[in-house]
Structures are given as C-alpha cells and as structure tokens.
C-alpha cells in the first residue's frame, strides 16, 4: 500500500486561494489514480476532484469546477489541488486517496483542514 500525507490547508478569506499537496511514500504514486475528497462537518464525504495515473484525465465535482485544479508530478510522487475563489462552503477536511483500480480507494491520508471565512 502507498502511504499518503496531505498538507497545505489553513484559514483563508473568501475569494482567496490555497494549494493542497499530497505526498506519497512506500510505492510509486504513478501506479494510481488519485482523488481529492472533502468532508464538511455534519455532511457526507464527497469526491471533489480526481486525476488519472498519467494526469491526462481529470474529474471535478460541479461544486468546484472552474475554481479547483488537480495536477500531479509522478517524478516526485506528489499530487496537488489548487483551489481558487474559495467560498465558506468549501470549508472541510480535505483528503487525498489512491485508487488501486475500479474506484477502490484503499489508501487514504489523514486529511488537512481548510477553513474559509466570510
């Protein structure tokens, strides 16, 4: 299994930006698609963005489309989530997870808190 650690969260004002990073160890991340999930307090976890193993296929939830951008650098085992025009409803814990195939997200990081103030 690959081990994942998220970083880059924090407190930002509405309209601001943050870049989250997901660092992998243990195995090469190039073998996996990676999803960025988020879970707000009292809400279900949702898939915000996803990138395939090569970086050429990306998915965004409607709620983040046009504001978030997912990318990866397999040479350094990293995946990123650039978040622009942040809004209070983006407040959540953000997790990265590795998909070993067919949507089986079986490796998860511990999450990083993103808080957007109005």
How is this structure best described in words?
This protein is mostly beta strands. It contains no helices and eleven strands. Strands 2, 4, 5, 6, 9, 10 and 11 form a seven-stranded mixed β-sheet that branches. A four-stranded antiparallel β-sheet has the order 1-3-8-7, with no helix packed on it. Strand 7 and strand 8 form a beta hairpin. The chain starts with a strand and ends with a strand.
- Give the fraction of residues assigned to helices: under 10%
Distance between the termini: 39 Å
| β-sheet strand percentage | over 45%
Number of strands: 11
User: What gyration radius follows from the Cα positions, in whole Å?
Assistant: 13 Å
Instruction: Return residue spans where pLDDT drops below 50 for at least 5 consecutive residues.
Output: none
Mean pLDDT: 96
Global shape? globular
Element-level helix/strand string: EEEEEEEEEEE
Structural classification: mainly beta
Largest sheet: 7 strands, mixed
Count of alpha and pi helical runs: 0
Secondary structure blueprint with pairings:
Elements: E1 3-7, E2 10-13, E3 18-25, E4 33-39, E5 46-51, E6 58-60, E7 68-73, E8 78-83, E9 92-99, E10 105-108, E11 112-117
Parallel strand pairs: 2-11
Antiparallel strand pairs: 1-3, 3-8, 4-5, 4-9, 5-6, 7-8, 9-10, 9-11
């Amino acid at each position: 299994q690959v081990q994942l650690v998220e970083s880059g969260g924090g407190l930002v004002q509405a309209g601001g930006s943050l870049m989250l990073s997901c660092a992998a160890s243990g195995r090469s991340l190039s073998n996996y698609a990676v999803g960025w999930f988020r879970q707000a307090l009292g809400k279900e976890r949702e898939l915000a963005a996803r990138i395939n193993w090569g970086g050429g296929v990306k998915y965004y939830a409607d709620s983040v489309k046009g504001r978030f951008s997912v990318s990866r650098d397999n040479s350094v085992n990293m995946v990123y989530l650039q978040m622009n025009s942040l809004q209070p409803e983006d407040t959540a814990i953000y997790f990265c997870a590795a998909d070993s195939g067919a949507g089986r997200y079986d490796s998860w990081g511990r999450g990083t808190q993103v808080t957007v103030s109005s």
